[in-house]
Amino acid sequence: MPLRQYCSILIVISSVACMASVPTSWTAERQSLVDREQQVWSTPVHDSEFAAVPHTTQASCAATQPPQALATPNPLIDEPQEDSKVTVSFIIGTDGKVHSPLILESAGTSEDNTVLNTIRAWRYRPAMCNGVPTESEAKIGFSPR
Prior knowledge:
Blueprint: H1 3-20, H2 25-41, E1 49-52, E2 64-65, E3 68-71, E4 86-92, E5 98-105, H3 109-120, E6 123-125, E7 127-129, E8 132-134, E9 136-142
Antiparallel strand pairs: 1-9, 2-7, 3-6, 4-5, 4-9, 7-8
């Protein structure tokens, strides 16, 4: 048998052996992640406080429009404590993405990291100043229900 045929048969056999060794629990784990992701992305829009970010080169706005939330899922905080609250300040850029999130009130490292990672994925329709997208600042608080 030529060497090329031997190598290709060996590759096929090793691929089949690798696929057979994948645990079946992976599909169950993946399914639970899909369910969890669906739950996160189907949560309602949050009430936030918005403020315009002052710029020295920008003229005053005659017609302003605050940013509009497009995707702002709740962070999944594991076992929140009764008195814990996380308050975050961030900038909504002209691209609608969250920039520079900053923890103002902490509930612990784990909860803070979860909230920051979730907020970084949020998307908005940017604030408008005279019909031009502009940056705005937002502040939001999370507390256990």
